Amino acid sequence: MSEKKRLPRVELPEGVGLSTRALREGLPPSQWGENSEALYLTSSFVYPDAATAARRFADEEEAFTYSRFSNPTVMMMERRLAALEGTSGCIATASGMGAITLLAMGLLRAGDHVVCSRSVFGSTIKLLGDVFGRFGVESTFVSQTDVGEWRAAMRPNTRLLFAESPTNPLTEVCDIAALAEVAHAAGAWLAVDNCFCSPALQQPAKWGADFIIHSGTKYLDGQGRVIAGAVCGPEELIQSKLLPVQRSAGLTLSPFNAWVVLKGMETLVVRMKAQSANALAVAQWLEAHPAVARVHYPGLASHPQHALAMKQQSGLGAAVVSFEVKGDSPEQLRAQAFAVLDAAQVCSRTTNLGDTKTTISHPATTSHGRLSEAQRQAAGIGQGLIRLAVGLDDVADITADLARGLDSL
Ligand SMILES: *Cc1c(COP(=O)(O)O)cnc(C)c1O
Question: Which domains, ranges and CATH numbers included, belong to the chain?
Answer without folding.
Answer: 18-267 (3.40.640.10), 269-406 (3.90.1150.10)
